[in-house]
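Why should sequence recovery work at all? Because a backbone constrains its sequence more than one might expect. Tight turns favour small or flexible residues, buried strands favour hydrophobic ones, and helices have their own preferences. The token representation captures these environments compactly. In the example below, the structure is given first.
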């Protein structure tokens, strides 16, 4: 007999939902969703309570690349293998163990989750070769709603429309400048640019990243807007890329982030060793 006060089991995830998320993230929009999730995490640094906790851990100062890789791998393990697969469940458990070390408000956890829902949808509407279909949007939402339940997050909105509204309202009320926002943002921008540019050229790439940021995000980070001509150039370049991709069609071979070569783990990794520990 199950005790009456036992926590409810998380909702099951339909196989069609997991298959749709896997297809979106590894075939249809592999690069786009990877970039959108990077910006999703970046947006969370505009909330001082979140950036302050991240700054106190010291991870961004000591080993930013490892923190990036660990986060990317945990998310990829869940998306590529499914929430309730052995590897997906292990990744969720590792994430919960890390979060359990800190006192994190439910609203902050919920906001991070909603960015993972909203930003890929918005990115593809602005920059993708096509937006997600209605069925894809629903699958993306249901996957992350189930993930939030497995993370113990409460008061998750019951629909995608409510999630989009909640996310926008939270940002409007909680985005504000703090020095920790800027510190974490600066390290993250330089890390991401380092994937594409040699170190001496990283300063030249910083305005390009700012060209992709909206005014509330720029203000919360203490960043000056990119010049108007650069904003138009970046938007035009992404629009040209989208037109080319529409002609080429989706990938035929899955791009699996869990298989990507990473200097942090030259010999491979084990899920239970990812992230931070006491």
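From this structural description, the recovered sequence reads:
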């Amino acid at each position: 007999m199950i005790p009456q006060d036992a926590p409810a089991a998380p909702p099951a995830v339909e196989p069609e939902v997991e298959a749709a998320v896997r297809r979106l993230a590894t075939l249809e929009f592999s690069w786009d969703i990877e970039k959108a999730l990077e910006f999703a995490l970046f947006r969370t640094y505009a909330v001082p309570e979140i950036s302050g906790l991240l700054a106190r851990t010291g991870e961004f100062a000591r080993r930013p690349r490892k923190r990036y890789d660990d986060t990317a791998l945990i998310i990829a393990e869940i998306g590529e293998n499914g929430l309730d697969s052995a590897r997906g469940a292990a990744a969720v458990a590792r994430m919960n163990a890390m979060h359990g070390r800190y006192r994190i408000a439910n609203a902050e956890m919920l906001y991070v989750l909603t960015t993972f829902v909203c930003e890929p949808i918005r990115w593809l509407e602005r920059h993708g070769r096509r937006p997600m279909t209605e069925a894809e949007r629903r699958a993306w939402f249901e996957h992350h709603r189930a993930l939030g339940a497995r993370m113990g997050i409460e008061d998750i909105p019951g629909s995608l429309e409510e999630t989009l509204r909640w996310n926008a309202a939270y940002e409007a009320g909680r985005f504000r400048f703090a020095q920790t926002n800027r510190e974490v943002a600066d390290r993250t921008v330089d890390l991401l640019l380092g994937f594409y540019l040699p170190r001496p050229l990283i300063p030249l790439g910083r305005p390009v990243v700012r060209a992709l940021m909206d005014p509330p995000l720029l203000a919360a980070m203490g960043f000056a807007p990119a010049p108007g001509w650069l904003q138009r150039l970046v938007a035009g370049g992404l629009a040209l890329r989208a037109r080319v991709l529409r002609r080429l069609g989706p990938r035929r071979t899955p791009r699996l982030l869990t298989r990507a070569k990473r200097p942090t783990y030259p010999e491979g990794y084990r899920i239970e060793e990812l992230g931070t520990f006491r």
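A few observations help interpret the result. The radius of gyration is 19 Å.
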